Amino acid sequence: MSKDDAEAEGSGTIRLQKFIADAGLCSRRAAEALIYQGEVWVNGQKATPGTKVTPGVDRVTVEGKLVRTQAQPKITLAANKPRGLICSNDDPHNPETVFSLLPREYRRFRFFCAGRLDKDSEGLVILTTDGDLAHRLMHPSNEVIKRYHVTLKDRFPSTKLARLVKGLVFEGERLKVERAALINPSAAGAATDLDVHMHHGKKREIRLLFSALGYTVQRLRRYQIGAVRLKGIPLRGAKQLASKEIEQLFESPRTPNAEWQATASRNPSIHDD
Fold this sequence. Notes:
7 helices, single chain, Structural Genomics Hypothetical 15.5 Kd Protein In mrcA-pckA Intergenic Region, Chain A, Pseudouridine synthase, 4-stranded antiparallel β-sheet, 10-stranded mixed β-sheet
C-alpha cells in the first residue's frame, strides 16, 4: 500500500481508483483512465483525478452504474477451460463463458479473466476478483511465461523451429514465441506435437503464426503459467490459489532441454530452411 493510500485509509477515505478496483470493476490503472474519460461520478458530480471517497457514505457511479460499497474478497482461481467457452464477461452470441466454470459459492462476485484463451483453445486460465493482479498478469512488462502443447494436422520439421522464435510479420504485427520444441519427434526430426512458450500473447497469435507457415493447429492447450501447472485440475474444474501459488505465476521455472528445440535466449541449435 502506498503512503498516500495508508494516510487516506487512516482518515476513513480512500482514493477513488482504489475504491473502484476493490469493488472488482477493473484495475486501478483502468479506473484512472475512466476518471480521465469522465465516466466516473461521485455524489452526482463528475470525478476528477485525485478524488477521495468514503466507502459507505459517498455514492459512486461508473458508466452510469452504481458501484457497490462493500469491497469484494480477493479470490484467485486456476481453471481448466474446455474448448467452446469464450473468455468474456458478456457476449450475446456465446451465452456460456469461462465464468460458467466458477464454483457456485463464487458466482456472486465479479471475476476477471487474466490472460485469455480463444474459443477453440483449452487449458489453464486464471480467474480473479483482484483487478490489480489481473493487470500485473496481463501487462507485457512482467513477461509472465505461458506454456502450451500444440498439435498440428501435419508434421512440423525441426528445420523450421527457428522461424517460430525469429517470428514473422503478419498484417503489420510481429508474431513469435520464446521457445519451440518437438515432442516425440521422428528419426528424421519432425513431429505433429510441439511445446511452445511465450510471454506476450496477442489474440490467436500461436494459431496465426503456424498458419502463416502453412500449418493448421488442431489442438492448443495451455498447461502452465509461470510455475503454476494445470495438472490435477479436471476439465471444467477450478482450484483456489493460495498467496504462495499466486506469486508462482510470476516465476520462470527451468526449461528442460529437448532434442529439437529453438529458444529466444540463445542461438537455436537447428538451422532455418
